[in-house]
């Protein structure tokens, strides 16, 4: 393992997890080579500009989410065809993902509610006692079940 020189809090852990995931991808799919699939066309420019506007609107309203930020970066990448500029956009996407993961990691742990046993239903007039065959009003041994077989 190589020494890490990361100074940004949480980035070393993110890089280790990213490296592990990339290793799993290489093991599963091998070294892949695909065309970029990006286009500087009207559709991608429109989507990029819309994502920027949405991001800005939410930032101004203080309702900005990580999903907005990531969508904007993603849309910018899809509209870029120059390899050097596309690479820079992809690095920005990775940085947003790192920031989002860091934010998730710093949130307080959500404690799941304990599984509570189901409470028995309260007896009603149709319940009877198996031991004394009494009803909810006349039983003294508290062995009520519901309902009487003849009531089914």
Automatic annotation (TrEMBL):
Which top-level group of life is the source organism from? Bacteria
Taxonomic classification, please?
Bacteria, Bacillati, Actinomycetota, Actinomycetes, Kitasatosporales
What is the designated name of this protein?
Answer: Uncharacterized protein
What is the species listed in this Swiss-Prot or TrEMBL entry? Streptomyces erythrochromogenes
